[in-house]
Amino acid sequence: MKGFGPETFGELNAEDYDLLHNPGTTEAAVDLLAVFALPGRTLELAIGTGRVALPLAARGCRIEGIEASPDMVAKLREKPGGADIPVTLGDMAVVKAEGEFDFIFLIFNTLFNLTSQAAQVACFRNAASMLALEASIHDPTTQRIDYQVLRITKNGFQLTPLPMRYAWPQETDLMAELAGLSLENRWGGWDKSAFTADSRTHISVYRKPTA
Ligand SMILES: C[S@@+](CC[C@H](N)C(=O)[O-])C[C@H]1O[C@@H](n2cnc3c(N)ncnc32)[C@H](O)[C@@H]1O
User: Fold this and answer.
1) N vs C: which end of the chain shows fewer Cβ within 10 Å?
2) How far apart are CA 34 and CA 58, in angstroms?
3) Is residue 207 within 8 Å of residue 182, measured between CB atoms?
4) How much distance in Å is there from the Cα of 1 to the middle of ligand 1?
5) What are the angstrom distances between the C-alpha of 9 and each of 17, 19, 192?
6) Cα of 183 to ligand 1 centre, how many Å?
7) Mean pLDDT lowest for which of 36-45, 82-91, 105-114, 145-154?
């Protein structure tokens, strides 16, 4: 189609986008995206009017966007919290947001707004170039993990080390017991869900028994 550029979607749709483009899955999408987005810095490609970015920001996610359409960004800016979300204007296959991100996503068929395979591949490459790199060495005999986060900065490569010694919950229970504390609660998340083999987070509450 002639004359249809990256900004055209917004020129044609920004005014009534929120009214006409409700897939009915926003809340479920935000629930899942928040799991990946919460620990670090997140980038949404084609952020649009902030349909999912705003609820993610409201949950405490550090989210930014790339967006081709100034009209869509203007709609985002009109909404509560919309002015606080950094957005880089431009083609998501080409432009870079400042710095590195821990999680980058696009949603709602947006990859297909890029109308050639070459542009879609370029978009994946562009996203990959903005992802922070992590390398780790794991020594199970000492329960030690040595992380290195590799950042690509204006001044070249920068390594940020993070050494850790992990312990299973049974071992933290033992440490607590040695300190005279007893386990009161164990959850698999801040929603107090059960701690199971599939849990990605772990919360334990210990109490000092009354004398
Ligand atoms: C269906 S909307 C999705 C918006 C938002 N992610 C959402 O889920 O509501 C598609 C978005 O992609 C943007 N867009 C289209 N081509 C783009 C490109 N090449 N680079 C960046 N954004 C683009 C449009 O302006 C529009 O905001």
Assistant:
1) C
2) 10
3) yes
4) 18
5) 10, 15, 42
6) 49
7) 145-154
Q: How far is the CA of 48 from the centre of ligand 1 (A)?
A: 5
Please indicate whether residue 126, judged by its CB atom, sits closer than 6 Å to ligand 1. no
Asked if 151 and 158 count as a contact pair (C-beta separation under 8 A), the reply is yes
Q: Is 113's C-beta closer than 6 angstroms to any atom of ligand 1?
A: yes
Are 107 and 23 in the same domain? yes
Higher per-residue confidence, 38 vs 90: 90
Tell me the residue range of the domain where 186 lies. Answer: 169-207
pLDDT at 200: 86
Q: Is the pLDDT of residue 110 over 90?
A: yes
Residue 86 inside a domain? The answer is yes
For residue 31, what is the DSSP state?
Answer: H
Per-residue pLDDT band at 155 (split at 50, 70, 90): confident
Whether 107 and 22 map to the same domain: the answer is yes
